[in-house]
Amino acid sequence: MAERGTHTVSSEQLAEAAGVNSAKVRKDLSYLGSYGTRGVGYDVEYLIYQVRRELGLEQDWAVAIVGVGNLGHALANYRGFAERGFRIVALLDADPDKVGERVGDLTVEHVDDLDRVVKDERVAIGVVATSAASAQEVCDRLVAAGVASILNFAPAHVQVPAGVSLRKVDLSTELQILSFHEQRRAAVDLVRRTSERRAAGGEPPADPAASD
């Protein structure tokens, strides 16, 4: 909305965009200390500021990416992180052929230097973009180096000790979710087309429950 030049937004507009009801929007935003003006709505820029402050995005977070394969390259070159307050400060890999490679403004360092890099760059968040076989070891190294927030892209289930925040991005699961929705849409469309054909031929419409 801000990018479109919108200056104020109503709770109804926010609710429609978020897929919830406007009363929930007003209640949730009240916890930020943000109260809209009746008949006017919320100031978009100030609302963005309040949300960013609550999410901790008003400060600069140093991020290290471990694993500089295709995914690691893509993450390192993604400019959207900086816009949200996340600064990629280090790239690390165990492959000697990748160590010393320039990716954007950074040079890939060996994962054995992780402790030093975390300390020197004050890394707050570690991103794991390795193979599944290496993911747990890399997480262990990040935790040992003092990193308490980890984002795991590796297709593996990893364990971290209490006090360490772990988030997993499973692309295959997301694709499966989309596959489910595509299948459901196809089924609904089939029922609709069957009903239309029967109606055109003078037959009673199909019972959707029967097709289930």
Helices and strands, with pairings:
Blueprint: E1 8-9, H1 11-18, H2 22-30, E2 42-43, H3 44-54, E3 61-66, H4 70-77, H5 80-83, E4 86-93, E5 102-103, E6 106-107, E7 109-110, H6 114-121, E8 125-128, H7 132-144, E9 149-152, E10 165-168, H8 171-200, H9 208-211
Parallel strand pairs: 3-4, 3-8, 4-7, 8-9, 9-10
Antiparallel strand pairs: 1-2, 5-6
Which strand order spans the largest sheet, edge to edge or round the barrel?
7-4-3-8-9-10
Report the sheet with the most strands, covering strand number, pairing sense and barrel closure. Answer: 6 strands, parallel
The helix/strand order is: EHHEHEHHEEEEHEHEEHH
Work out the strand percent. Answer: 15-25%
Helix coverage percent of residues?
40-55%
| Contiguous uncertain segments of 5+ residues | none
Oligomer: single chain
User: How many distinct beta strands?
Assistant: 10
What is the helix tally?
A: 9
Kindly, what is the distance between the CA atoms of the first and last residues, rounded to a whole number of angstroms?
41 Å
- Average predicted local confidence, pLDDT: 89
Question: What does this molecule look like?
Answer:
The structure is a single chain. With 212 residues, the protein is an alpha/beta fold. Helices cover 45% and strands 17% of the residues. It has 9 helices and 10 strands. It has helices at 11-18, 22-30, 44-54, 70-77, 80-83, 114-121, 132-144, 171-200, 208-211, and strands at residues 8-9, 42-43, 61-66, 86-93, 102-103, 106-107, 109-110, 125-128, 149-152, 165-168. The protein has a 6-stranded parallel beta sheet, sandwiched between helices. A two-stranded antiparallel ribbon has the order 1-2. A two-stranded antiparallel sheet has the order 5-6. Helix 1 (11-18) packs across helix 2. The longest helix is centred in the last third of the chain and has 30 residues, at 171-200.
